[in-house]
Amino acid sequence: MPGPSNTLLIEGSFEELADELSHYLDEVKRKQGDTNTAVQTDITPLLEQNQKDEVLKKLVTGSAILNSAPEKEFIAAYNLLVHLVRQSPNLNIFLPKICQNLSSPVTSSPTNGPGLALSVLTTIFNILPQDNDVRYHVFLAILRVIRSSGSFELLRPQLKNLDSWIIQWETDEEDQRKLYLTIAEVAEEASEEEQSYLYLLRALRTIPSDEASSAEARQLSIRALKSALSYPTHFDFQDLTSLDSIQALRKSDPILFELLEIFNAQVLDDYNDFKDEHDDFISSQNLPDEILVRKMRLLTLASLAASSQSRSLPYQHIARALQIPSEDTEIWVIDTIRAGLVEGKLSQLNQTFLVHRSTYRVFGEKQWTEVQGRLDTWRASLEGVLAVVRGEREKMLREREREIRE
What we know:
Elements: H1 14-31, H2 39-48, H3 52-62, H4 71-85, H5 91-103, H6 113-127, H7 134-149, H8 152-155, H9 162-169, H10 173-189, H11 193-205, H12 215-230, H13 238-241, H14 244-247, H15 249-252, H16 254-265, H17 268-277, H18 281-284, H19 289-307, E1 312-314, H20 315-322, H21 329-338, E2 342-347, E3 352-358, H22 365-405
Antiparallel strand pairs: 1-3, 2-3
Helix pairs in contact: 1-2, 1-3, 1-4, 2-3, 4-6, 5-7, 6-7, 7-10, 10-11, 11-12, 19-21
């Protein structure tokens, strides 16, 4: 995988090495039964005329056959091709085709092929200057190979470098979006749901405000929204609602946007009312109702805990809000704690859940009112404590005065 820049050392003149590679390409072709073309014959007059770029065009065009080269010779042959291409001032013309070949299956080694291709692509990536924007295309090729082989773990350590690479390559918003979407797809196929959603969200953020209602923005927004709803462990929807392209769904896809608003701030009763009003909408959108119901129960409990003035929730109240049997209350409270939405202590004796910390799903006027009410309660409590302290202090002073007089 990409790492520190390095150097590829191969001895020999351009003419000698080009002739050697062309001979090798012809040998591999003949072994595959192709005797119609001869790369060596084509490049010989070009070498005599010192037309290096024309020679490279022939070599790069014929290099697709390297994917059927013996496994032990694969890396050496591609490294020789890369070495020759680097000697051209028009390097950027030839590397995309080589990357395309390396992104294709290595037919001579289905098992080890992805690893072989990644080795060569990594070499190409690392020998290029850090600010060379061709690195962007090489990295896309690396992503395609990782996607085909399901090797997301090889990619994970490199993602921390992505932001600095994008700055070095001076990548525009459209290319950033393409890169983020590719990473999202690689992560999704590796069942890395949160990583996939994260990069899908980053792709959405590259869409300018004046294009928030475009067809592409709508497609990506719906995809991101469905992902956020479907992922069992995703509970924060503020990152979506803050985006212009998501807000544009209010007009283009009002029912889907209504569903987002329910998961953002409302409770299970509202979700059930939504399903009654929009029959079969959930199934028509291929959304997993079982997961959605579970998430709404957890979010509903989070809302109950956040809005409780007494910080004490009776089991009966929780069971009614979550529409569950009362004997299942503790299980759902524990699940909500595990999801990180609340913290607290269960009291089986008193049949209550004592809330220590809760997560506000949204923080608007209603939440400020709740905070104000809680502060008023605390102030009244403190005033009561202060009154008791003052009373005791005055009592103690009176007793001391009486003792002095006596």
